[in-house]
Predict the 3D structure of the following.
Amino acid sequence: MKNFEVTRKSRNIHVIDCFDKSQKFLLVSDIHWDNPHCVRKLIKNHLDEAIKENAIIVINGDLFCCMQGKGDPRRCKSDIRPEHNTKRYIDAIINTAVEWFTPYAKNIALIGYGNHETGVIRNVETDIIERFVEKLNTVARSDVNAGGYGGTMHVNLMEKNGNAYSFVTHYYHGSGGGGPVTRGVIADQRMLAMSENYDLIWQGHVHELYHHINPVHRYDRISKNISMRYVHQLRTATYKEEWDGGYDGFHVERGRPPKPLGGYWMNLTIRRDNENGYNRYVDAEFLTCTRYY
């Protein structure tokens, strides 16, 4: 029995209703599934565990690398897998990806766009996420949703009496190149400054892996009280291991270091303020799912 339903409120706002007081999520980005450097064994392990744990899977952009099309100035012959080296390059990626992801499709709630997918729209004039999602849903009889480059994921957890409690995420694939020292944290603070009323702000793109918490305060003009709340910030890494011992390539030539691989497990649970209290809230726990070489 499926443990969630997704409702598309607009092109980049999706509500996920979970039929329990707790729910596990697998949050990943930057899989670059079709790249020869993608560590498919690792992402398969995480997806298999998501199925075992009945976790909801969300992908925040760059599911595909997809830079080897004829009209793409980023193309490089060494970065194409043999099964995709055909005159129907985009179709080959979609068809093989649908076959590979079908066992996981019914657990996938949402797939966002990354700069690689928007690059395909710009350079090759086709929307690979829209085409992939449409075919995957047809083959797997699933209900995977395509989101935006950025958007809102509104999760509702439900108690047995029907009361629902929410945890709201602003996902954004990311921008810029991060930094050798700050590793994207400056961009996190900029996102925090221009966002309001979210419980989690989640980015990818720079292939870093971290979680931090920002306590923020709010003044209520009616009650004349100050309240505190936490805003989580998350950065998911990649499944593309392109440092490759530091031998050569785009990543190495630009002096970039080895990057972490993996994403995060997010566990959401309805809790009470205290033992005798009636106030409920959704507590979030974040655990890395990764592997280091």
